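User: I'm designing a mutation panel for Beta-lactamase family protein and want to avoid disrupting the core. Could you give me a predicted structure to guide residue selection? Please restate the sequence first so the numbering is unambiguous.

Assistant: Good idea. Sequence first, for numbering, then the predicted structure tokens:
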Amino acid sequence: MTYRIDRIDHLLGEGVRDKVYPGAVWAVGDTTGTRAHGTAGVLDPNEPDVPMQRDTVFDAASLTKIIALWASIGTLWGEGKLDLDAQLDTFWSEVDGHPLGAVTARRLLTHTAGVPLRAQLKNLYGIDPQDVRDGVLHEALHRPPGEAVEYTDRAALILGYLAEHISGQRLDQLAADRTWQPLGMSSTRFGPLPPEIAARCAPTEWDQVSGTHLKGTAHDFSARLLGGVCGIAGAFTTLDDLAGFLLHMLAPSASPGQSGFGPAWTSESLSTQTGPLLPVRGLFWHPAPGTAPADDIWVHYGFTGTGMWISPRQGRWAVLLTNKLYYTRDRQPLTEIRNAFRGLAFT
């Protein structure tokens, strides 16, 4: 097995020069662990002498949906505590008598639940966390469940509440106890980060309130509104922690620790769960753009510029972490780099 390391370095270096992002870190590997890794650019353009490092901490953004929420839901499913196909109102009193009660966890995981497409938590429900929770769980559906595949952060927010209801733990503690600590993901945690860890965090978007780039505080507004912890976003992580997570997914026996979720959950999740509906979805994961079903390459992205890929059929995984939000919210330049990186990592 070979990797096009020189071409990956060149690709990511071009992204730095073109100001797609200040810097990036990457790794590719297989069932034996990390096979190659590298860095490009700097942590912060205002400090040009401080390069990106392998242990740079990144705002994971929507990768939180995988490393915290998906893993926790998989743990509860594997323990028989959650039936993905049971209507929520059959076991969750908070949604009994409300439209969400007719939805299943599987619908939420495939983005086919029909819940509203935008979070808009503060505008709709205010700033009290309990008011937000009540509003989200009691809101009318956007469309009938199973009618369409529509990505929405609300699905993750609801599943986060569900995981907390079933486990009796806050999501941050559940993820730490059942996934992060067992897998040795010692640099993964929800924010806001303490100063000593925030110092090695890649800054993201300019924040008008603080008058600086966000660093160690989640970029996602919903996560900030809810104190840093929710199913949508809010986790911070590092390259090596994500590499260990993906290794566990691909080859649990080779993993240094054992998470609460197992190979059955990975197999269930990395398979088409949306029937004839398009775009194709697994459970939170989706096929990588530009790939064929035979390639069996699945991906999840984060809005801040993060992404990770995995292919059980090829026995490979890859991680690319950037802080592209430092410059812009325009997705297209990073989309092109991501697709090219995936092509080099899985050929």
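For picking mutation sites, this is relevant: The longest strand covers residues 33-41. The chain has a mean pLDDT of 96.
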